[in-house]
Design a protein that fits this description.
By secondary structure, the chain is an all-alpha fold. It has two domains: 38 residues, no CATH class; 44 residues. It has four helices and no strands. The termini are far apart. The mean pLDDT is 87.
């Protein structure tokens, strides 16, 4: 007749501490779930389920190197402005903007 829909479990990272605590209480190996905060509960539940956290990959370029390149591009942009080369100044402005965003992500 009618199919029963399986209720999908939302990702562990999105669960509240209360939901994580309920899951932790069902696992017999976890002790002291009531005293844990969300970060601790998340780590314990992931460990119990065998989920390995993937660390974010750091960029190989340092912020200092990026800022040095930004300073050089700003000098070039000023030269382009004095030569009244609007296209080159526009291109350099966009490159500077992209590099600034990259420094924010790297921080």
């Amino acid at each position: 007749m009618g199919k029963k829909k399986e209720k999908k479990e939302k990702p562990l990272d999105r669960m509240t501490a209360k939901e994580l605590r309920e899951i932790a209480l069902k696992v017999p190996d976890i002790v002291g779930a009531h005293g844990m905060n969300k970060v601790e509960l998340l780590a314990v539940v992931k460990e119990a389920r065998g989920i390995v956290d993937e660390k974010a990959k750091k960029s190989s370029v340092s912020i200092r190197e990026i800022k040095k390149e930004i300073r050089e591009l700003k000098r070039s942009r000023e030269e382009a402005k004095t030569e009244q080369d609007k296209n080159k100044a526009q291109v350099l402005r966009r490159r500077i903007s992209r590099l600034k965003k990259k420094t924010r992500r790297a921080a």
